[in-house]
Amino acid sequence: MNLRQLEMRLERLEGFERPTARLEQYQTPAPVAARLLHHAAMQGAIEGRAVCDLGCGTGILACGAALLGASRVTGLDIDPAAIAVARRNAETFGVTVEFLVADVRDPDLDRAALACDTVVMNPPFGAQKAHADRPFIDRALELGEVVYGIFNEGSTPFVAAYTEGRATIEEVIRCAFPMRRTFAHHRKDRVDITVEVIRLKRI
C-alpha cells in the first residue's frame, strides 16, 4: 500500500463524537497519520511487529498499523467514548486491534503484556496542561524499542533533553497538521500548524 492509498483509507475513519478540550482530543489528520505510518513501515517498524498506540483516541494510528501488517496492535486511551469509536473503526477496516481503556500514567499498567517493538502516538501537546506529553514519552520508552511520536513544532530540543540517557533521536520529519475548529474557543474553521514526527530509539 503506497502513501496515498493509505491516506485515502484513513480518511474514511470516524472522528471524536464529543471531543474534550481537557484531553486535547484533536483528530490526527489522515495525511499526518499516513505519513508517520508509511515512513515507519518503510523502516521495517510495522509489518510483522507488535505495535502499541498510546493515547490512541479514535484509533487512526492503531488501525493504520494493523492495515500495514503489524503482527499485534494494542491501543490505549483514557476515554471510553473514544475507545468505542476506535473499535468501530477497526471493524470498518476488518482489522484486529486490542483497544484498552487505560491511563498511561497508571503505575499498575501491565507493562509485560503491553511490551512491543514499536510505539506510535500523538500525545497531548500540553496546550491545556503543561508537560502533558511527558507521561506518554516515559511509557513509550518503557514499552517499545522504537517510538514514532507527533510533537508540536520546536519540541525536538526538549525531547532530546528529556530522554537523554534513555533514547536517541534518530530522525525528525516536519509536516503540516491541519487543525479544524473543534472547541468553542477556536476562532477559525481551520488552522495549519507544523508538527514534528520524531523517531526515538531506546538505548
UniProtKB/TrEMBL annotation:
Q: Which GO terms describe its molecular function?
A: methyltransferase activity
Pfam families for the chain: PrmA
Q: Which residues form a coiled coil?
A: none
Entry annotated with the keyword Hydrolase: no
Q: Which UniProt keywords apply?
A: Methyltransferase, Transferase
Q: What is this protein called?
A: Methyltransferase
Q: Name one GO biological process term.
A: methylation
**InterPro entries recorded:** DNA_methylase_N6_adenine_CS, rRNA_MeTrfase/Polyamine_Synth, SAM-dependent_MTases_sf
| Record keyword Hydrolase present | no
Where exactly are the transmembrane stretches of this chain? none
